[in-house]
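Ligand: ethyl 4-(aminomethyl)benzoate. Inputs:
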Amino acid sequence: QQGEVSNTPEAHDQSYLCPVTVGGQTLNLDFDTGSADLWVYSTLMPTSEQRGHSVYNPDSSSSSNAQSDNSWTIQYSDGSGASGTVYADKVVVGSVTATSQAVEAATSVSSAFIKETHNDGLLGLAFSSINTVQPTQQTTFFDTVKSTLAKPLFTAHLKKGAPGSYDFGYIDTSKYTGSITYAHVDTSNGLWEFTASGYAVGSGSTVATPYDSIADTGTSLLYLPTEIVAAYYGEVNGAMYDSSQGGYTVPCDSNLPDFVAIIGGSRHTVPGSYINYAPISETSCFGGIQANDGIGHSVFGDVFLKSQFVVFDGSNSPRVGFAKQ
Ligand SMILES: CCOC(=O)c1ccc(CN)cc1
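Predicted complex:
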């Protein structure tokens, strides 16, 4: 099988949500290549926490089977988290069906999620080795269906301020220009982890320097080594590190330079306008590039990914591919 599902950006392209049917019930989920749990808001949560969300009711699904011995708890790098119990149920993404997918029904969700009222949960697309279900670890939707796909891959086509798509099982050549360049993926941390080989700021010269990175659709910004971030904002008049905001800010009327990442031996350019992320005040805007301090690797999140067509190749030699949209 193969199929396409639309994604729709939240405000500031902070996240991209896709309609998914779980046990015949449609929820809007954040497809996250940085984690490996499919979890959903559910009727098992306090009613007050369900308010404003679509929720999964396992009791009203004719195909749910409780995995009563299993439970899950997840913490994300931004401090948010959730926990709950597990069912097996039918999950449909576009036209791709997992007949018995582990659906992690939340009993508790952190406050940061609750206020994202369009976000009804996450669909993890990292490697199943980091799925949090215990005592019996479960597979991601992609791993569950992979063997039934025409090709063992999915693609991400995220756009700036407009709906895009995720495709499972095929590469739609109408969604990119030029060629796709690939980088080898190291799966030892369960992530789509690769090494970028350099960068350039605007029309500046290319700097050859390797930096360990992940492709993460579930992270909003582009997190890079501190020296690269300093080199970037050093080219922006009025840019500053504002500890009260927890990162670099720029004047909202800045004409920001492009950022070029060298991956797979090719140049991949983020337009400068994408790096003016969101207003903080009348004149100050939060930068879309921030330092990766404390994360342990660089994170190519949506600020970068929405400039690219991205192939997540889950073959026996996993790799990530990037092409210009
Ligand atoms: C603001 C509430 O948090 C999220 O929406 C969220 C948190 C973590 C992840 C996983 N990268 C995705 C969305």
